[in-house]
């Protein structure tokens, strides 16, 4: 089973990141965390490691309503939050890939019906965000 859903679009890096932020916001997600992997690698591992990974950012997206429902159903679900969304582009790529965690992964770890409902809702919203990104330039 794949644990992400993704789209690849012929967008410049900055456009891809902004389109991802906008699409997530349109689905009720805010960005709680942001990890610039390239910058982190450059600071900790050097410029060669940064160059090898290319442009790579991890956005910790959270829909407060969904998170509240998931935590009410099973407090341990907090270990799987926020939903990670990756925007990445290799140094020689002419396109950018956006991939989001597949919320159905939560369902595999929990048998709670309420968690399944939250995962289904989150999945629909994340897929809609990816479709919006793909539709902008697709």
List the helices and strands and how they pair.
Elements: E1 4-9, H1 13-26, E2 30-36, H2 37-45, H3 47-53, E3 55-62, H4 64-73, E4 83-89, E5 96-101, H5 104-109, H6 113-137
Antiparallel strand pairs: 1-5, 2-3, 3-4, 4-5
Helix pairs in contact: 1-6, 2-3, 4-6
What does this structure look like?
- This protein has 138 residues and is of the alpha+beta class.
- Helix content is 51%, strand content 25%.
- It contains six helices and five strands.
- It has a five-stranded antiparallel β-sheet, sandwiched between helices.
- Helix 2 runs antiparallel to helix 3 and helix 4 runs antiparallel to helix 6.
- It starts with a strand and ends with a helix.
- The model has no long low-confidence stretch (mean pLDDT 93).
Provide a brief overview of the structure.
This protein is of the alpha+beta class. Helix content is 51%, strand content 25%. Strand 4 and strand 5 (96-101) form a beta hairpin.
What is the chains' assembly state? single chain
Distance between the termini: 26 Å
Number of helices: 6
Uncertain residue segments: none
Q: Widest sheet: strand order?
A: 1-5-4-3-2
Mean pLDDT: 93
Order of helices and strands: EHEHHEHEEHH
What is the helix fraction of residues, given as a range? 40-55%
Shape from CA axes? globular
Beta-strand share of residues? 15-25%
Rg over alpha carbons: 16 Å
Number of strands: 5
Note the main sheet.
Answer: 5 strands, antiparallel
